[in-house]
Amino acid sequence: MTRLLLGVTLERICKAVLLLCLLHFVIIMILYFDVYAQHLDFFSRFNARNASRAHPFSNSSRFLGVPCPRQCHSPLRVPLAVCSEQRGDLGRLLIEFSSPMSMERVQRENPDVRQGGKYTPPDCLPRQKVAILIPFRHREHHLKYWLHYLHPILRRQKVAYGIYIINQYGEDTFNRAKLLNVGFLEALKDDEEYDCFIFSDVDLIPMDDRNLYRCYEQPRHFAVGMDKFGFRLPYAGYFGGVSGLSKSQFLKINGFPNEYWGWGGEDDDIFNRISLNGMKVSRPDIRIGRYRMIKHERDKHNEPNPQRFTKIQNTKMTMKRDGISSLQYRLVEVSRAPMYTNITVEIGRPPPRLARG
What are the Galactosyltransferase C-terminal domain coordinates in residue numbering (predicted)? Predict the structure, then answer.
């Protein structure tokens, strides 16, 4: 009898142990599949996120013409950083004008430039939006070289820019400063977000792209050392060739004078306007601000202005009434070429000179 009871007890214990083992096994399997499912979900989401980074539109099937399912979400956009001005790929450049140049070559070399000569860095946020204005007449040969060199320079500098050629209509006496006043207004009509304006002669090419084409706290003179001057500043008040002013700086000096017909004088007048309005001219280091000039003969109808010395002495009296506030011109045509915007304008002719005696 005792043996029988002992056997029954052992049988019950074995069944209980077996049930416990079975229960333990079931619980382990449930936990295992739950964890496995979580891992599958994590890796599927991780892979989807990586795919969306590599292909921004891959998880939005509507771009393929397929209806987007409910779980389809637009990818998160990482904000762009501000463009850095400290770049290791900037430095001295070899500038030469002996190789033949064509506008087709310039266009082929700059596929990222938009119609009208506009460009915005795709990988960072530019600090300023720059309008580059070139007074122009009959300089197509020089323009090809200028575009050939400046487009790559500006792109390397991460500049958001537009290039405007201000073409004087007709054959009357050339007026560089008045054309630049026109360019300022017409560029703002084209894009009111421009906050920096660089005024450049078409025959000057920088020899170092660390000479950043942007505006500074003070008006900027870029062409510190031209080859024709032995790479030296010809005199302390020189402000010719290439200069830059912010929108507020330009308006503060009432723009440029309109009454300098012919060659010379207007740059000195602008320097006077800057000084008389309590600002100072800033410049790059002489080793960085070097320029090469494309050699050429003096243009017809751009002879030296005999009145320039008298006008320079009277800047203080004339700058408030002669400038952007008194500008008059007739817009002839605006056309957009692949590498620049052309603005052809009629600006009149100089007043007749009084007869002596």
Answer: 220-297
